[in-house]
Design goal:
Blueprint lengths: L3 E11 L10 E3 L3 E3 L4 E8 L5 E8 L1 E5 L5 E5 L2 H7 L5 E4 L2 E4 L3 E9 L8 E13 L12 E19 L4 E13 L2 E12 L3 E10 L5 E11 L3 E8 L7 E10 L16 E9 L1
Parallel strand pairs: 1-12, 3-12
Antiparallel strand pairs: 2-4, 4-10, 5-9, 5-11, 6-7, 8-10, 11-12, 13-14, 14-17, 15-16, 15-18, 18-19
């Protein structure tokens, strides 16, 4: 009697912008450690298969390229030494099997370091999931079987606010470019304070009467100085002429409680643009 068994394993990184791809769900999508060094989050398995879950940590943060596009930065050892939570953070449990249609609470515990300067420290929480593997013995005799095992990584931020925290940005200039019916505005900014600027940014196109003719808003997380790009879709039939583009940054988000965000006054800057 002969049995042939092959196993293929694939690792897929899943951003929370595409929750339909993931095998599990995580809530909340940003975790804030309290003053006692304690936090928790929930892992839910909505599938019909048991899921193997592993919790890990990796230092990283969102950044931007020279065109203001979002990119993730990993391997920055200098900033990890200055702002990272490091190995002081632990997860309980760290590995477990989650039955179908069940939820598990995972608790985080941070060992405090009172010698740190005031500010916000951070890392990223990586939750790896894959369907529980079948035992080789479950394969029938004379059966050629290939087991494809997909592993999904979901990564969310973890923050710890220590002492007096403050944040802000200063916008030096805004560059604009029009391609077809799209207007792109890129702000050159410098972060201030001792904490990331986490909130939202709104781009508005205003006519000479201060009426908003196009608007878009998105969440943002600005950890370090750089460029932030926004795109506006120009409405059909927009009259040619001079308009103003305004970018407005605020420390508010619908998915994060206001008391978790380091607050500052809204920051806005305008530039003139000519619509052909």
């Amino acid at each position: 009697m002969k049995k042939i068994f092959a196993s293929l394993s694939f690792l897929i990184a899943v951003t929370l912008g595409f929750p339909g791809i993931a095998q599990i769900s995580i809530a909340p999508t940003s975790v804030f450690v309290d003053n006692n060094g304690i936090a928790s989050f929930y892992v839910t398995n909505p599938s019909d298969e048991p899921q193997e879950i592993n919790i890990g940590f990796v230092f990283g943060y969102p950044g931007n390229d020279d065109q203001g596009n979002l990119l993730m930065v990993y391997g920055d050892s200098l900033r990890e030494k200055e702002f990272g939570i490091g190995d002081r953070l632990r997860a309980f449990p760290r590995s477990f099997v989650l039955a179908p249609q069940q939820q598990q609470t995972v608790r985080l515990q941070l060992r405090p370091d009172r010698s740190l300067p005031d500010g916000t420290y951070f890392t990223r929480l990586k939750v790896t999931s894959n369907a529980q593997s079948r035992e080789v013995g479950e394969i029938a005799q004379n059966e050629v079987a290939t087991q494809v095992n997909f592993k999904f990584d979901q990564v969310i931020p973890v923050f710890y606010k220590h002492g007096e925290t403050k944040t802000g940005i200063e916008i030096s200039e805004i560059e604009t470019d029009i391609t077809g019916n799209n207007l792109r505005a890129v702000a050159d900014f410098r972060t201030t304070g001792n904490s990331p600027f986490i909130g939202s940014v709104t781009a508005m196109l205003k006519n000479k009467d201060e009426k908003i003719v196009a608007e878009v808003q998105q969440t943002t997380a600005l950890y370090f100085s750089g460029k932030k790009g926004m795109e506006l879709s120009l409405p059909e039939g927009l009259t040619s002429g001079e308009y103003q583009v305004e970018l407005r940054f605020e420390t508010k988000r619908s998915d994060i409680a206001s008391n978790n965000l380091v607050q500052t006054s809204p920051i806005a800057k305008r530039v003139y643009v000519r619509i052909p």
